[in-house]
Each structure stands twice: as structure tokens, then as C-alpha cells.
What does this fold into?
Amino acid sequence: MDGGIQRPAPGVAFLYALRLGCLSFGGPAGQIALVNRELVEERRWLDAATFARALNLAMVLPGPEALQVVIYTGWRLFGAVGGIVAGLSFLVPGALLLMGLSYGYVRWGGLAPVASSLVGLKAVVMALVLLSIGQLAQRLLRSRVAWLIAAFSFGAVALAGWPIPATLVLGAITFAIGMPAERLTRPVARREIRWRAMGAVMLVGFLLWLLTWVSVHLWAPHSRAEQLFLALSRVALGGFGGAYSMVAWSGQLFVQHYGWLSSADLAAGIGLAESTPGPLLLVLQFYGFVSGWLAADIGSPLVTASICALVASIASFLPSFVLVLAAAPAVDFLADEPRLKRCLQGVGAAVVGVIATFALGLGRATLWSGGSINGPALVIALGAASLLATRRLGLPATLALGVCAGWWFAP
It folds into this structure.
């Protein structure tokens, strides 16, 4: 490769992908920054323009941004196999660790010391989500219309109970209407987009999804695992706006629509997912495990929970692999399409309101207890917000400190 860019050996790239999967703490923004620093600035495996295209593609497609950036960089270096290996290496270490934490939560989460520690964990998560809302607002709400869309989305979901996808679609339409006629900065010829290859990837992905659903349906029809798989498939395909938007939508389904989990379970899951490496969306594996444990409609609680965690992971992450590998050859077209950009601005504004609704639910579950404010949780949340905002401590250390403070101070 020219311009000082060096192509790594496959074995070296694989070991790096595993290392990234074990050390990628810090949420989507931190993970993307880590990949950029190591692959572009230090190792010189990619140039800045290529990484920018990876990030643009992740913003266009539904799904977790950090995972999609990793899949694209793997595809760029070694084709489809590279993308699959890179993505799985990014996912598997955190998924295995979170599986163990999920089991610990359902077995010992009700014990007083563990429950007190979880209070601190949830308080840190509350602070993290509020800071994320502020950062998203600065980046996405740059016009009066964007602020109005965010406010309307918050009210529609929090007060009127609108489904989250409806608010995202309305935000996109609001920005798209009246868009001035624009041209692509660089017209893309039809021959540059390999439609047959894209179609083949989509077909293989659909067959894998269909095989999973048929297997679950034939083995355990109408079970929690089948319901979970279908529900999270909708989230994965309609999850524009990033990981937090998808988590908020999933929380609405798990708590309000199906009643599978409580708001406290949602907050605990985010805290445990943030404390492990890998994408934040691994929290959906936790939700699947806990809801399966409570249902126990296939076998023992552990068997049902394990199956539900597996199908939740497949439903949540398979679409990201398929969409990235299918769309990667057309990334220039997608990044430069002005109408698509305009719609995404509207989606982004609506996402801010949706995440604010999610934060409201977390606040009720975390900071309100027994009809009054939970003083220790409030103090921990304020302290965590100060540490994270000033960057005096990283996220893993802040989470650990919150757990210790919850164990020490919480009633």
C-alpha cells in the first residue's frame, strides 16, 4: 500500500483484533477513538480517509457504531473473511465475560451486599447516560428545528408512549421535507457498486437469520427465546442512531411492552456491559439471559437463559455483519448521498430525545426508592459525573469506585 500505509500479516491482524476485543472499554466513542489511534496513527494499517469512510458507513447503517467500524476495517484489509474475524474477535471476549456476570446477577443479585453494590453501579450508569446526552446534543442539535424534534420526541415517547421507531421516522421526514436540490460531490458510476456481490451477502445473511428462527421455532415454538429473537431482530434492523438508541428501544420493549424485566434490571445490565470490553449492545445478551432465567419455559432456568442469551446475540449482531459487508463496496455513494445525510440529521435529533426518555426511566429506577430520593445513589451519581466530565478517572475505574461506594454507603 502507498503513502506509508502498511498491510499487516493476517496472523498479526488477528492477534490485534483479539487484543482489541479484550481491552475495548469506554463505550462507542472511546472504542472508535482507540481504533483510530492504533490503526491510523500508530500502526498505519489504514489512512485517515479510509477510517473516515468506515465511520460514515457506521453512522448511515443501523446498529452499534464501534462494531461496524471494526468490521469495515477488517473487510478493508482482508475482505469478507477479515471483516467477520475482526467483528467476532471484538465481540467474543466481552460476551463470554458478560455471560458469567449475568449468571452472578440472577443468582446473587438479591443478596444485600450485591444489591448495595449494584446501587453504585446504576448510579454511575445514570451519570454516564446524562453526560452522553449532553455530548450528543452538542454534536447533533445545531439548529432550532433539531431542538424542536428532540423535544417532541422526548414528549412523544415519555408522555404519549409512542413507539421509538415512529419518532425516528418522523424526525427523518421532518428534515427531508423541503431539502434543497443537491448533487453528489462525486457521481458514482453504476459499475463501481457491485450489486450482485451485495445481493449475495444479503441473501446469505437472510438465510442465516431464517435458519436460526426456524430452529428455535421447531424446537421451542412460542417460547421466550423465539419472542426475544423476533423482537431484537426488529431492533437491530431499525436501530438507527447508535447503541444508546437501540438500548433505549430495547428497554421499552422489555419493560413496557412485554414486561419481561424491570427498570432496575435495565440499569444493572448497562452497568455490567459498560464494565466489560466490547460494544455496549452486548447488554442485549444480558437482557436475554435474565428474561430467559425468569421465564424458564424451555428447560431449567440456566438452559433457557443460555439459549435466550445466544439468540439475543445472533439477532442483535448478525445484521451488522451482513449490512456492513454488503454496503462496504458502496461506502462512497452512501457517504456522499445528500438526501440520506439530511434524513440522518433528523434521526440524530430524535435520538437525543429518545435517550433522554431512557435516562428518565433510569433515574426513576436508580435515584428514587421507597417514595423518596435515594441519597447515597444521588451522591454517587454526582461524584461519577464529576469524575467522568473532568476525565480524572476512566470509565472502568469510575465504575469500580461506584460499586465500592454503593457497597459501603447504600442501605
Notes: Residues 28 and 351 are 15 Å apart (CA to CA).
